[in-house]
Fold this sequence. Notes:
By secondary structure, the protein is an alpha+beta fold. The chain has helices spanning about 10-15, 25-35, 70-75, 85-95, 100-105, 135-140, 145-160, 165-175, 210-220, 225-235, 235-240, 265-270, 280-290, 295-300, and strands at about 40-50, 55-65, 105-110, 115, 120, 125-130, 185-190, 200-205, 245-250, 260-265.
Amino acid sequence: xxxxxxSLVDYMREKVxxxxxxxxxxxxxxxxxxxxxxxxxxxxxxxxxxxxxSPNADMLISFAADRSERLQKILNDGMxxxxxxxLRNFVQRWCSNGDTLNSHxxxxxxxxxxxxxxxxxxxxxxxxxxxxxxxxxxxxLSDNGxxxxxxxxxxxxxxxxxxxxxxLLSKTIESIVTVLPRQARVIHLSHMDGRExxxxxxxxxxxxxxxxxxxxxxxxxxxxxxxxxLLCAYCSDHRVGGQLYVDITVDDFxxxxxxxxxxxxxxxxxxxxxxxxxARVDLLQDLFAAGLCTxxxxxxxxxxPSRERILWxxxx
Length: 316
């Protein structure tokens, strides 16, 4: 569906999932998004189920590489938010011909999220896509190597992560990347500095049958036996096509009893598995039956559109 009569923010207001996000969240977030509208490529909501707190839906806006110069101009001309200094520096390098980030980063996201009933309004967290052609499955499945580690560290430096924190993250990231299975891939890096306690996350594609051996080899501190039960319950080959998309939290990866992971169900699964219902009815009912999804969220998510293509005024 194409729409050109509304601004991006007006359109987003129209599409707010009111059952999930209160107006106060959007009033604050939209004031930051509006100046960025001319550079935004897309926006979406990310639903988190199974947290120890109430489920939440975070808002994300994305910028494709062909919008990087627009984004740079907006950030340099008028965005005064102190929390965006690292983003400015990253985008400057992203726009520089010959820079590694210019040739390897295909998109950038800003995430506005809720953590433990505390809404983060003024400091979105950046995520960086490290796959030059994300829509090319062959590219996603290309081999890993030392270059992946170097690219991750380069991106964190560009985001102006402090030296002390960078040194701590470096050892864990290296231990993860060096034992990734051959057909696994780090798709994007997130530095969640908009949260009360910053988190670094790696979003990875990993063959399902190699996931548990990988975690064991990398020294993951979480309970492998419990994770195996979750994989059997919710991530059958019928549902995920033999591929897992996983958010790996770097900060507590090696801590006994820690090791936070996020198992994600993505549009890519609908292309490469037998379970291809975009409404995810079977999955949502399984999660509801297990107490990981409330009845209100079940109703809301079942009627949520999975994708809509629009054209807004500022995108021209």
